[in-house]
Amino acid sequence: MPAVVDLACLSCLLLLISSSSTATACDRCVHSTKAAFFNKASALQSGACGYGSMATSFNAGHLAAAVPAIYKDGAGCGACFQIRCKNTQLCTKQGAKVIVTDLNKNNNETDFVLSSRAFRAMAVQGKDQDILKLGILDVEYKRVPCDYRRNLGIRVEESSQKRSNYLAIKFLYQGGQTEIVGVDVAQVDSPNWTFMSRNYGAVWDSSRVPSGALQLRVVVTAGYDGKFVWAKNALPADWKNGMVYDSGVQITDVAQEGCSPCDDGSWPATARLI
């Protein structure tokens, strides 16, 4: 299914998601690949998701660029993964938890390119420089829930213009194990919804946004599960560019996907995000 679907009626999208088969489903599919690292954190700050310099504040700077199949035209932005290298003499059993903030265009057979901080975090104590010298590692990974213990944030982008009814927003702190695949906007208490389009990465926009306080409804999904999340008071009437607003909703859903093998329970629990 495409990562971006512009629908005035999001229920159509939700129905399409719900009709998928759930055969051989699990919530922790384990994949094998290779991972490399960026020498400079700035390479991920200017990433395709559009988080900019705030990316380094996510998860203590444990960030990743992912291949198109994981990036999903931006729907994968903010997704969390646990990655561990297969060299048990150099790396821990737990590995590192990372957040996708960029697109890995030149994959060189690697699904992920990590920030150097995240790459070193996979190492056992005293071996971080050894894995940096290797440069590329055989790893296995699985998608895990993002656990922020905070509500979904909505950042109003600097390009927004009230006079022309143009609004661009960026979603932050997306919890659970979900992807945002559709967004509608309307005045608070109004039944007249307008769909928003994915501009790029985590940024959605519309040039037909009404005035006044705004509500949002989004479809969140990962794998087989899809649902509405309704932020009834998402933005105040006097919203300002560059500000981050509390949506009032917290996403904690963990959805199923089809795969083999599933996590056999050998992975330790992950730490929650900062």
Automatic annotation (TrEMBL):
Stretches assigned to the Expansin-like EG45 domain: 46-151
Keywords: Signal
GO biological process: anatomical structure morphogenesis
Gene3D superfamilies from the UniProt entry: Expansin, cellulose-binding-like domain, RlpA-like domain
Ranges for domain Expansin-like CBD: 165-247
Pfam families: DPBB_1, Expansin_C
InterPro entries: Expan_Lol_pI (IPR007118), Expansin/allergen_DPBB_dom (IPR007112), Expansin_CBD (IPR007117), Expansin_CBD_sf (IPR036749), RlpA-like_DPBB (IPR009009), RlpA-like_sf (IPR036908)
Signal peptide boundaries: 1-25
GO cellular component: extracellular region; plant-type cell wall; plasmodesma
CDD domains membership: DPBB_EXLA_N
Superkingdom field: Eukaryota
SUPFAM superfamilies: Barwin-like endoglucanases, PHL pollen allergen
Family from the record: Belongs to the expansin family.
Protein's recorded name: Expansin-like A2 isoform X1
